[in-house]
Amino acid sequence: MKHFIILLTSLCFLNFSQLLACDIEVSTPAKKAVYQAGEELVIVVHVTKSHRNCRVDINETTYETDGLKILSATDWKELSAGVWERKMKVKVTGNMKGKPSLYVRRKCSKENSEGFIVLNSTSQNVS
What we know:
There is one protein chain. By secondary structure, the protein is mainly β. Strands 1, 2, 4, 5 and 6 form a five-stranded antiparallel β-sheet that branches. The protein contains one helix and eight strands. The protein has one domain: Sandwich (Immunoglobulin-like). β5 (about 75-80) and β6 (about 85-90) form a beta hairpin.
């Protein structure tokens, strides 16, 4: 009976891990404590697809900025099976909170995923 319970628990855990959403990591290689309006920086987005047969194309990833302007971006590059990377050049424009941010989202029929980065800025609401 013990072995059956252990086996059943293991199978449930393995099946549950297949249901997890994509992992999205957003970072900047040279993060500063505070950014000024007009400064440009590179933000790196890593997406790890958790589903074996994810039907959502990597190019369907969406972005929302507040206090940042996306100037350019590389194409998505698959680093290994299911692990993708994209680099974005952004410009700090500022916002009312002094916290420019970039949100990265993927919508999936199983579960939605989100990753973000929030920076500190001395500028407010500068375009």
